[in-house]
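[Amino acid chain]
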Amino acid sequence: MKAVIEPVSEYELERNKPMPTTPHAIIQSNLVFELRSRYRQQYRILSELTLDTPPSGSTPDVVIYPFFAADFTKEYPARRTDAPLITVEIQSPSQSLDEMVDKANVYFAFGVKSCWIVQPRIEGIFVFEQPNQYQFFHHDDTLKDPHFEIELSLSDVFV
């Protein structure tokens, strides 16, 4: 039997990552909601923002910057050249953990201080504070970022 090769969508070509699934969308919206609910005065929580990482840019699922006032009259570049504090990537079924760790390493080289890799299937989150150094949170743990005063109950993320 021949393997069926699915055509790559415009979304996947543009963002260099798989199309999100329903679990991905649920987790992403839960993360943004929980982070914004708790930390809206300290941090600017953004989703699907393209960073000017080498070689051709990347679009993490969620990024966290220090709080800045929104200026809707300003023209912003298509790619941010300044590193966020934190990037969050939600692993899709077609991505390997190695691919996700490689992405985190690109973010660290760009200047990011903390990279979270969410694994929906096992309801867990790796929090990398530098390449090859991480903590793993799962089930009803409270995620605690080692660099920032951010805490999240995973029972609020995976619901």
About this structure: The CA atoms of residues 82 and 117 lie 21 Å apart. The domain at 20-157 is CATH 3.90.1570.10 (tt1808, chain A). The radius of gyration is 16 Å. The chain has a mean pLDDT of 91.
